Amino acid sequence: MKEGWERAVPPMQLDITQIHDIISPVFPGKKVATAERIGTGLSNTNYKIRLEGSAEPYVLRLFRKGREIAEKELAIIRRVRQTVPVADYIYADMSCGVFDKPWAIMEWKEGGLLRDVMRDGSEQDLVAAAASAGRTLANIHKHTFTESGFFNGDMEVQDPMRMDGERFLAFIEQSLFQDLCGQWLGEELAQSVWSFSQTYSHLLSEIEDTPMLVHSDYNGLNILMRHGPEGCEVSAVLDWEDAFSWNRYVDIANMLRYEPDGSVFEKNFVRAYREEGAVLYDHWKILSKLEDLVALCDMLTHSSLATPNRMHDLQRLIAGTVQVTKG
């Protein structure tokens, strides 16, 4: 699950003095006792901080991509926090006055990564975690919109668009035969992707779902788990910076990207998602793979020889995607 992927941009490195200067408006008179860079994310930078005389930790989040992305994430968390477990914002500074990037203080959520449960957990924990992740995703998808597209800082769709079969094929054709994606795949695999896309693209035009909130990075690296009354359950869904209004299959694909077809996790994740009231089309697996091809090809286009681990993983994932022809 993105094991060993290289970061395109190094994380921001701050010492305790710099962190203290940044957060002093939030905690006047308090000194930072410890600060530890945390997380597996490949974009923003997060520090777990503790203040002198306080046992409660906090998270300092530094946004690499700028103000609008930070404002969007804040707006999303405010919208979903009553129905979806999230790490809430305590304070946010978008001015870039104290620090040259937007930053926020967020509550600390206890728990371990879903990735670790998927990789090392018992079957009992795996079943419970899959079901909890499925229910949580269904609740995310209950937040709907009138249009599909990308959000501005106010969580409004700026330029409505829809990924129908025609738009999908145009994107894949561009990726394979003009962009670097095709070069990194090689001619044989690129032709397999093109054939798969032509065969199944029409299914995207048949989707009639209402556009909904899509996390777009809903996977084991962005979900914290804890042990609750019903076993392993979601503690918080993290990193909403790439969320947008789209169809449900983006998130289904992202969660199951590394899962073998028909795995214990897949079965319990999908079962719980449906039991929460979500509806999947008969060809949901193919629809998910089509949506995932867009993401995978885009990421491969933006890979380079300087990111070999990322490139090799994406090549393998794309090859596996076009072999799936059932569901």
Which CATH-level-2 architecture of the largest domain?
Alpha-Beta Complex
- The CATH class label of the largest domain is Alpha Beta
Beta-strand share of residues: 15-25%
Quaternary state, please?
Answer: single chain
Q: What is the arithmetic mean of pLDDT?
A: 94
Q: Tell me the number of helical segments per DSSP (H or I, 4 or more residues long).
A: 12
Task: Give me the CATH superfamily of the largest domain.
Answer: Aminoglycoside phosphotransferase (APH), C-terminal lobe
Explain this structure to me?
It is a single chain. The chain has 327 residues and is α+β, with helices and mostly antiparallel strands. It folds into two domains: 16-107, 2-Layer Sandwich (Phosphorylase Kinase, domain 1), CATH 3.30.200.20; 112-321, Alpha-Beta Complex (Aminoglycoside 3'-phosphotransferase, Chain: A, domain 2). Helix content is 42%, strand content 15%. The protein has helices at residues 16-23, 67-80, 114-120, 123-140, 165-177, 180-185, 187-200, 202-205, 249-256, 264-275, 284-301, 308-321, and strands at residues 32-38, 45-51, 58-62, 89-93, 103-107, 112-113, 212-214, 223-228, 231-237, 244-246. The strands form three sheets. Strands 1-2-3-5-4 form a five-stranded antiparallel β-sheet, sandwiched between helices. A hairpin with a 6-residue loop joins β1 and β2 (45-51). α4 (123-140) runs parallel beside α10 and α5 packs antiparallel against α7. The longest helix is centred in the middle third of the chain and has 18 residues, at 123-140. It starts with 15 loop residues before the first helix and ends in a 6-residue tail after the last helix. The model has no long low-confidence stretch (mean pLDDT 94). Residues 32-327 form the Protein kinase domain. It comes from Paenibacillus lautus (Bacillus lautus).
